[in-house]
Amino acid sequence: MPNTVEVGHARSGKALIHKLLLTIMLAAACAGLARAEDAKDPPPWLDADRGKVVLLDFWASWCTPCRQSFPWMAELQHRYGPEGLLIVAVNLDRERPQAERFLAQTPAGFRVEYDPEGELATQFDVTGMPMSFLIDRHGRVRARHTGFREAQRAEREAQIRTLLQE
User: Fold this and answer.
1) What is the torsional sign of CA 8, 12, 13, 19?
2) pLDDT one-digit tens code per residue, 10-41
């Protein structure tokens, strides 16, 4: 099974993601800032950071590959943040102290949001850990990755650089 799925090939996922992004943008425009602790509200980060390339990463404290991906994502945020990259890691632990212990051992260096009920993860059809979505400056998901392996770093970074140059 490939680790990268272009959204153009994900028939039902493409429609769901576009619907989610449109709903989030409309709700944010109509309602102002959403509260992160209210799971029914859209995440507040998307509308405020429109125009950036977003690497949206779903993770959990028990995820061993997440411990490997966090330093890499911190490096990416430091290197490409000034060019418009925003990394947002969404934690799926039901118990926030578990996530906080993970972050104490493996600092993020990028934005962390919490989704203990898994509602955003369900909307994005997260099927593995970590799972990330690369979203272009127009809010379109351009790539989806499940898992993390050192051998994939160069390919994923090239995808990010391509979107930053668009």
Assistant:
1) positive
2) 344 444 444 444 444 433 333 332 322 322 33
Q: Hey, what are 134's tokens?
A: 């690369």
- Report residue 71 as tokens: 């330093």
Residues 6+ apart with CB under 8 A from 68: 148, 150
Classify residue 72 as exposed, middle or buried by CB count within 10 Å of its CB (0-12, 13-18, 19+).
Answer: middle
Edge-to-edge strands of the sheet including 53-59? 4-5, 141-146, 131-135, 53-59, 85-91, 111-114
Cα Rg of the chain, angstroms: 15
Place of tokens 């602790």: 37
Section 108-124 average pLDDT: 92
pTM: 0.72
